[in-house]
Specification:
Blueprint (H helix, E strand, L loop, with lengths): L3 H8 L2 H5 L12 E2 L11 H12 L9 H14 L6 E5 L1 H12 L6 E6 L3 H10 L2 E6 L9 H11 L3 E5 L11 H10 L3 E5 L20 E6 L1 H5 L5 E5 L1 H9 L8 H12 L1 H23 L5 E2 L6 E5 L3 H10 L2 E2 L1 E2 L10 E5 L3 H15 L1
Parallel strand pairs: 1-11, 3-4, 3-5, 5-6, 6-7
Antiparallel strand pairs: 2-8, 7-8, 9-10, 10-13, 12-13
């Protein structure tokens, strides 16, 4: 009889066996500032209203017409151009996978600036697509125009991802450089605006310039990370094909109803985002005053900072009850860096104090 190890070796892909899983840090008991979440919960009155509304949802039925209503609400919320369409995903992660599935022709390549959102590369690994990461300019984390254009010419990518703002660096790339990349692209370009609620610019007003450009957003940073809802907008000629590979019931009735509720109360989430933008400025100023700490400019709800010893800072802050993200080993350009999520004013006070204490 075959052993289980023999069976797994026979049936599992070798590359999957060698992969490391995406690890989520245990956060119970910590001030959780490691995952770019909105720290604010709904006010009590809205919590009660949402609970009552979810209690009336027909969870015995598969998702139906309310999905179309959610698409219409998201289109209004985002200001989607006329003639464009939406496809919904279980977070942006699923949309990235769906795009990879739709474009997975033999030899297809996906290209993105690095460091960037890790799921672009992870999705490629799982789907057997070739991934090409093009390093950003050191220190400024700007697009390297010459390197990007050379990589496009050499690899002819089916998909190019541009995070706007970028994760984990937090910056908005130069718009003129983005346009030149888009014009050089032989396939599709996805502008990933996951952090749009906190940015001073967006790409939506330029979307109709290029029929091969898709715009991807998520409600996670809007304040609904727990419901896992992303959306992708583009020309019907593209979106209709992505819809073909989408699982038929990938957005649950509860997630759909919670999203509709949130969009009806979007003023509350705009208020929260404004608080976080102010706190981001205060956090950057406080970090710059700490010895040996260099915060980088940010247009997201996070701040990347280079510290004298990233491991020591991470462990020291964790020992003081504050959980952040140590990104110092994720890419050579991020050596010595930690990523700090912008929290509530009280959480940010604790984070600044914990980092200051961890530097001594």
């Amino acid at each position: 009889m075959r052993s289980l190890e023999d069976r797994l070796e026979r049936v599992l892909r070798p590359d999957v066996r060698q992969m490391r899983p995406y690890v989520v840090q245990p956060s119970a008991g910590f001030v959780k500032l490691d995952a770019m979440e909105n720290p604010f919960r709904l006010p009590p009155a809205l919590q009660q209203a949402l609970g009552e509304r979810l209690g009336r949802v027909a969870i015995n039925r598969y998702p139906g017409e309310r999905i179309d209503e959610l698409k219409a609400a998201l289109a209004r919320h985002a200001g989607m151009p006329e003639g464009y369409r939406l496809v919904l995903g279980n977070g942006s992660d699923e949309l990235i996978t769906l795009l990879g599935v739709a474009c997975n022709r033999p030899g297809a390549t996906v290209l993105a600036p690095t460091p960037g959102f890790v799921m672009y590369e992870v999705s490629c690994e799982l789907l057997g697509l070739r991934y090409v990461g093009v390093p950003l300019v050191p220190q400024t984390f700007e697009l390297d125009e010459a390197a990007m254009l050379a990589a496009i010419e050499a690899h002819q990518p089916a998909l190019i991802y541009i995070a706007y703002p970028n994760n984990p660096t937090g910056n908005l790339f130069d718009d003129a450089l983005i346009e030149r990349v888009i014009e050089a692209a032989p396939g599709l370009v996805v502008i990933d605006e996951a952090y749009q609620p906190f940015a001073s610019r967006h790409y939506l007003d330029r979307l109709t310039r290029h029929p091969h450009v898709l715009l991807m957003r998520t409600l996670s940073k809007f304040g609904l990370a727990g419901i896992r809802l992303g959306y992708l907008m583009g020309r019907p000629e593209i979106v209709d094909h992505v819809e073909k590979v989408r699982p038929p019931y990938n957005v649950s009735v509860l997630n759909c109803e919670a999203a509709l509720f949130a969009l009806e109360h979007e003023d509350e989430f705009r208020r929260q985002a404004e608080v976080l933008r102010r706190e981001r400025s205060r956090l950057i100023e406080a970090l710059a005053a700490l010895p040996g700490v260099r915060p980088f400019p940010s247009e997201a709800n996070m701040v990347l900072a280079r510290v004298p010893d990233a491991d020591r800072a991470f462990e020291g802050m964790k020992a003081r009850g504050v959980l952040i993200k140590n990104v110092s080993r994720s890419h050579p350009l991020l050596a010595g860096c930690v990523r700090l999520t912008v929290g509530t004013p009280e959480e940010n006070d604790r984070m600044i104090a914990a980092l200051a204490a961890s530097l001594t």
